[in-house]
Known about the structure:
This protein is mainly α. The protein contains three helices and two strands. It has a two-stranded antiparallel sheet. Helix 1 packs across helix 3 and helix 2 packs antiparallel against helix 3.
Amino acid sequence: MRRTVRAGETLTCxxxxxxxxxxxxxxxxxxxxxxxxxxxxxxxxxxxxxxxFRKAVTGRPKPIVLLGIWILNLPAFAVSLGVAxxxxxxxxxxxxxxxxxxxxxxxxxxxxxxxKVTRNYLTIPRKPEG
Length: 130
């Protein structure tokens, strides 16, 4: 069954409860993705994923967000750290030197994300319900 959109219909943001136009892809107040188009267009998908990461490192994330960040970043951290250690022990030339520093950068970025999200989850108090 197909749903028709009436003129003047609005959509409430699930993140901040701001009322938005039905055609909006992102909330006008907080920038959260609220429309179906925000997950179809490649550029808007990147913006949607960025919203998740920004929200996770600036406030207290929900347990499912914490778990998701760990699932996404722990493998990248482990692999890039392993590559950096391997290249450090088996240096052969300029290409290995460049790849070593690339692996170090990826390890550092993923570690910072994991650290900040976990710290925020453990130290920022929960909002009182009600």
